[in-house]
Amino acid sequence: MDYVYRRLHTDPDALMLLRQLEYLVALAREKHFARAADACYVSQPSLSAAIRKLEQELDVPIVRRGRRFEGLTPEGERVLLWAQRILAEQDALRHELSMMRGGLNGTLRLGAIPTAMPVVSLLTTPFCERHTNTRVTLESLSSRDITQKLAEFELDVAMTYLDDDTLGQVRKTPLYEERYLLLTPKHSELADLPVATWAQVAELPLCLLSPDMRNRRIMNEYFTDDGAIATPSIESDTVSGLYSHLHGNHWSTVISHAWLHMFGVPDGMRVVPLKRPAHGPRVGLVIAARSPEPVLARALLDVARQAGVHKALDSLLDVHLMGSGYLDIASKSLTVGP
Questions:
Q1: Residue in 220, 195, 161 with CA at minimum distance from that of residue 338
Q2: N or C: at which end does the chain have fewer Cβ atoms within 10 angstroms?
């Protein structure tokens, strides 16, 4: 890719090259010429012509063409990686310069696993208050999508499980450690227990997250360790989907204490601590391991280090446990977050 960098530094038409790279990235993302053109606010013939010109200048086939977009050639995949990197560095340069001029601006692209979404505002709100000229785009993504989008420079930072082996080369900043709690109707046989076991919970009418979600797979391990198998009648791929079933005081569910920040404890329900291993899964921020770090991502990490997310969630949990009369026992059975 020496050609690309030479042209960026010496060619007066370098802006055209950047547009060509933008068009290629859009095409790879949209997998459709017309949609890519719409995303770039150009006509489809203009986008197609620009990519053909890039192929001629690089002297390699980039796009596999048929009646429709059929993907990229091996050479095209390599060009795409460089295009994503060059465009990301261009954005990083602009953000660095804006910081030097006295104020950070730009759009922070943040992804979060669905089970961390309820606490994202603990970071995004102080971030926007501190950097008033910035914006945040927030996506709910699976762990797999987060890994891919970080690698392809489509995210600046993500909130996910730090113990996920598929993350690849990333830098990690811990935020909190998940604590699992039973939410059950006040008339439930477990509602007045100081601490419930996973085997006891498995006997309740349950609604839980779907098995394709990491949070549910972690819970399944805890059920198995206690000699039980949970067979929920209702499964959902969103936290809000679980909570929507709790207002009738029929179903019980298992929640992360972080969800209390957004959803609290519905009327007629009780929160009961659950026995668990000494350390639960860690949730935190991850950024791609590259230098220099994106300025916007670095700014969010600075906010995160001062926000005290784990302390805020611990305090919230204490309030709910105190209201249920479980605070003393809970403080002994649940560990403090990172």
A1: 161
A2: N
How many whole angstroms separate alpha carbon 78 and alpha carbon 232?
Answer: 45
Please identify which residue in the block is written with the tokens 């935190």: 284
Per-residue pLDDT tens digits for 137-165: 999 998 889 988 888 888 999 999 998 88
CA 307 to chain CA centroid, nearest Å: 18
State pLDDT tens for residues 74-131. Answer: 888 888 888 877 777 777 666 666 665 566 778 899 999 999 999 999 999 999 999 9
How many CA atoms, within 13 angstroms, populate the side-chain half-sphere of residue 236? Answer: 18
Cα distance between residue 45 and residue 28, in whole Å: 17
DSSP label at residue 88: H
258-262, Cβ contacts within 8 angstroms, sequence gap of 24 or more: 258/115, 258/116, 258/118, 258/119, 258/176, 258/178, 258/283, 258/313, 259/115, 259/118, 260/313, 260/316, 260/317, 260/320, 261/118, 261/119, 261/121, 261/122, 261/312, 261/313, 261/316, 262/118, 262/119, 262/121
User: 62-87 burial by CB neighbour count: b if 16+ within 10 A, else e?
Assistant: bbeeeeebeebbeebeebbeebbbbb
